[in-house]
Amino acid sequence: MYHLSNIASYYYKLRRQHQRYCAILMYSIFLMLLFVCPNSAIAQDVSIENADITSNTTSEVNKKRLHWSLTFSSAAYLGSSAVLYNSWYKDYPRSAFHMFDDSGEWRGVDKAGHIFSGYFQSHWSYKGLRWIGLDPETSIIAGSGVGLLAQTTIEVMDGFSSEWGFSATDFTANVIGVGAFASQQLLWNEQRILLKTSSTYIDYKDRYGAQYFEERAAELYGKGFASRYLKDYNAQTTWLSLNVKAFFPDAPIPEWLNIAMGYGAENMFGGYTNDLSDNYKNWDLPRYSQFYLSLDADLSRIDTNSPFLRTLLDVLNILKMPFSTLEINTLGEVKFHLIRF
Fold first, then answer.
1. Residue ranges of the chain with pLDDT lower than 50?
2. Which of 35, 52, 125, 247 is in the most buried spot, having the most CB atoms within 10 Å?
3. What integer best gives the mean pLDDT of the chain?
4. CA-wise closest residue to 114 among 154, 145, 74, 75
């Protein structure tokens, strides 16, 4: 049983690293796009303030921005795809395109992450296209295409790898995320319901009272705060953050105040079941889902005249802001968290 446990641990560690590496890679690309675009525009004496991405009217395409963005984004996409292939796929045998069913893994927390990724990549791409000067409808279509392309590239590479396969449920989750962006933009010309993410660091030794669980978590999720923040499914929550003022304009509340509903899960030490050593496999560790209700802040609705601060707030707006939170879970428990990210 020991060698089977090690094999399972190795498989899940690889799978986890593969999934999060993809997310980190694409996240880094879009961060670079968001920060470098304004700096490039300023260097060319092009006013950021003159680019109104919230307007519903057709604006003139800025050729300098268009040429720069096409060059950079194409290079970023091709480069990241090459790095991804060389880092994770080339050392494994290729196969005919095939499917892979991972629909039951991680109690759906990974699928929620796919929805979030498809959403924010499409949203940021839309903002970049409006900054260039494309009309709203074209920007929605193209931005959605960029978000879906970024995610589908990973799924297709999986499909030709003997180690994995094309996941229909991952692809469906990606489409849902892209659709969540596009439908709101078409209906309201704004994002009234944001998709956000958060992660709370877990000290596994302290929580479970045994050093083994810290070691097992390190196998699955890595070590250190940064690694756990990005990789640990037990720590991650995906949120729907609804702007109250957008739906109730006369409400006497701040423009930025949101109500957020989140989903997460805990006690997971394997994709489908808890793969633990013989000394701990009989521990009572039921895997369970968590549903949250909290407040949040839509940082995009905070007024500022600073291009740098505007960009910083937009980047931070993918994160759920810390507020008091109510939790209801599938163990039948109701908990109150004074502060939860």
1. 1-51
2. 125
3. 83
4. 154
Cα torsion 90, 96, 102, 108: sign: positive
pLDDT in tens, 49-93: 344 555 555 568 888 888 887 787 778 778 777 776 776 677 778
Check residue 53 and give its pLDDT.
53
Predicted local confidence at residue 227, as pLDDT: 75
Helical H segments across the chain, by residue range: 2-43, 63-84, 109-132, 136-159, 168-188, 204-208, 211-221, 225-231, 244-247, 307-316
Looking from the CA of 106 toward its CB, the CA atoms found within 13 Å total 26
CA 146 to chain centre: 15
Cβ-Cβ contacts under 8 Å for 303 (sequence gap 6 or more): none
Cα–Cα dist 282/2, whole Å = 15
Strand order across the beta sheet in which 236-243 lies? 193-199, 236-243, 257-266, 288-297, 323-329, 334-340
Whole-model pTM over 0.90? no
The token pair that represents 133 in the structure block? 């000067």
d(CA 307, CA 127): 14
Give tens-digit pLDDT for 199-228: 998 999 999 999 999 999 999 888 877 778
**Contact criterion met (CB below 8 Å) for 190 and 254:** no
**C-alpha span between 205 and 313 (Å, rounded):** 35
Are 319 and 197 spatial neighbours (Cβ–Cβ below 8 Å)?
A: yes
Residue 33 backbone phi and psi in degrees, to 5: -60, -45
Segments making up each domain of the chain, as ranges: 12-190, 192-341
Token pair listed for 245: 């003022």
